[in-house]
Amino acid sequence: MITASTRTLDGRPAPIRLLHPGPGGFFRAHRAWYTGHATDTVHRGIASFTGSSTDNARRPTAQGGMYTLIARGSDGDRCESIASVGAAHPGADRATRFTDRSSPDPAVVTPTVTEAGRGRTPEGGLDSALPAVTAQAGDLI
Length: 141
Known about the structure:
- The structure is a single chain.
- By secondary structure, this protein is of the alpha/beta class.
- The protein has a single domain, classed as 3-Layer(aba) Sandwich (Rossmann fold).
- The protein is 25% helix and 25% strand.
- The chain contains 4 helices and 7 strands.
- The N terminus is likely disordered.
């Protein structure tokens, strides 16, 4: 098993430098993986904030921010331990979200817009009348 680490040399989670709303599968398979493989990885941890589900905060927190990524290939499966998520918070935890966002430490917010973000008007803008959009509008970072 390979380990993509964003731990400091003494094993502590790396300082939070990235904030990510919506830590779903795409985030875990791509953003967190790339962060864990960056050359300056010991200096860049991720704080993630869920949307409506709290599972994507509860599970990483219970596992110390670590999870196993399984990459499937024609030559078989490859398992990799990912440790780049230094903190995971439920989206309803507004106090932590705004404290993290106003801190001078984070350098970037890294949103991911996938299939769930396809609520567009015929002109291409966000369809703010959609119930899913209005329900989550207050949860944005």
